[in-house]
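Trying the structure run again after the queue cleared.
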Amino acid sequence: MRPELVRLFEAARVPRYTSYPTVPHFSPAIGPAEHAAWLQAVPEDRPVSLYLHVPYCHSLCWYCGCTTAVSADPARPRAYAALLEAELELVAALLPGRLALAHLHFGGGTPTSIGPEAFRRLLRRIGERFSILPEAEKAVEIDPRFLSAEMIEVLAETGIDRASLGVQSFEPAVQKAINRIQPIDRTLAAIEDLRAAGIRRINVDLLYGLPHQTVDGCRATVRALLPVAPDRFAIFGYAHLPALKKHQRLIRTEDLPDAPARVAQFEAMAEELEAAGYVPIGLDHFARPDDALAKAARSGALRRNFQGYTTDTAETLIGLGASAISSFADGYAQNLHELVRWRESVRAGRLPTARGIRLSARDRLERAIIEAIMCFGRVDLAEIAARFGVDGEIPIAAPDRLAELERLGVVIREGTRLRVPVEHRPLLRVVASCFDRYLEPGIARHALAV
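Done. Tokens:
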């Protein structure tokens, strides 16, 4: 990216746009009653997706921005898994029938922390309440430092077919600074063991912008993983928000790379992956050409939801667990964050809904524009207008910002079409934000734009 563009946008904070409107604009006006009505209105003849959030981890990674809880007592995550079953029963009782399940995703935290038996039992309950389609993708996030042979066996036995491994960085100084010591050999062995058990599809998550991270270290991390050929890489920028995530105060701000260094780190990893034959997807993903994500990007079927870039086209995503978010045709509903309050609600037989938002017609239109920009780097405003029955021009939330991006060459306008040249891919979120009428510039609740 041109240095002048880095300087222009280095202080900008914009959402990651895994939803629109984004989570900070959810309201407690959406509660259990609205959530229940949306569950009851799910079409019986269409597949749905299911996301289960397990917040427990074996140790605290200081960079983490997720809803997590650390416990050395294995009984706590097992008890949590039993309550996930109870929440599943609450939700299933409201659905119009035993719906088809197209995607199943376990996120965290560390989902495998619930242990083999609890995982097996939870999958059995899901199979009883949903009709899992033969082609359904069943994925789980994994910390390779705490993956036992017995857990791998149960993952394979229950039909898990995609594993997403957190790596972040192999640089020793970085690992020490983020409290995540993770040997290369252990990570590579976990990938080989998963594949040997039949779990062939492997994703790897990396971070840039971490304390003490270097361009050479970023390249070395990617090169260390290439021999095992993961199917997908996700390369996220570290979001330092110590006001919102108190444990991030353990990371010294002065140890973080500046914006030009962050961009250089991302570009170095992207260069290594593309040279190895990986296809860039959207903002920050890379996939082998034969992977389903790459095929979806080529065909125009790529989507973006709370799990990031996905091939999941289901209109309904049901979230279970503390902080989990459900997506319906009419809006979003998010569960309580606090484990104690979530636990109390489920035990009392109530949906643990904390907040959400009802989608307006304009929300849906702007969401379609933002998703097109984030997924493909281009959008046809006339096509979107026709799809949503809009006469005349679509209102732009930040026309001056969009005009400036056009002047800088970040956006190319061709009639009613807008496109972002591939070299400006790191600024997709900035371009998308031009259509976000909820965005409050200067509010430090979002990640840095670069």
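The first strand starts at residue 48 and ends at 54. Worth checking whether this holds up in the mutant runs.
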